[in-house]
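Assess this today:

___
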Amino acid sequence: MENIKTILVPWDFTENANFSLLHAKLMSDTMRTQIYLLHIISKDSEHDDAKARMEEVVELIEKEQGFKPKFLIKKGKVFKTISSAAIELRSVLIVMGLHSSKKSHKVLIGSKVPYLLVQKPPSGKKIADIVVPIDTDDSNRVQLNWVVLLAKYFDSSINIIKPFINSNYKNRLMKNNIQFAKQIMNNKEVIYGIKTAKRDEKFNHSINVFATQIEADLIFIMSTKFKDYMKGAIKQEMKIPVFCINPRTDLMVLPDKR
């Protein structure tokens, strides 16, 4: 295996897979990684046909988009195979089309590699604005390392949104988390702003309204919040890409900042 880090795109020949590839290319241009397409088969007898189809896909991508991804064919179950392939290929990110929030949740839970889940092509040529929800949960602090790295890589602005809270006890927790976030952002010289959600509005709804208003390029969600977030996102027909990590995601998977 080459000693180069990669971005992995699960490939099922769908429109969402094409959208994922475009997002992967946007990320790869800045992170200087190799893009791999992963096609999963269920039987060995499917390998030759899959290989021929993938070769055609790669040739078409090179012809139409001017770059040539590599591809890997693996037999197995989707939920386990994506994660194992990501480790094998030293992936820093998995970019995947969001077909079903339930299936996506099964895939990303426990993954050491972050996911970017997409439903449409990139809205621009850079990741300008990232929305980061922060509540009273201590796990919010884990995500800040990744938030800072993304901001530095892509010269992005971080837009923190926090819930409106009545409880004095929860307010103290909230203030502690926000103060911690401010300290991290200031120390790393990241451009950021903080918004409080409306009093009588569900927090997940507020996240989506805010992200839509500022035309965010992605929303950063911890895996522990993903299921609840997606319920509202589906109802609101949200299609802004979701960057999702697990609380124990290993920062070492990310390439060094150039």
Q: What stands out?
A: The chain has eight helices and ten strands. Residues 6-118 form a domain with the Rossmann fold fold (CATH 3.40.50.620).
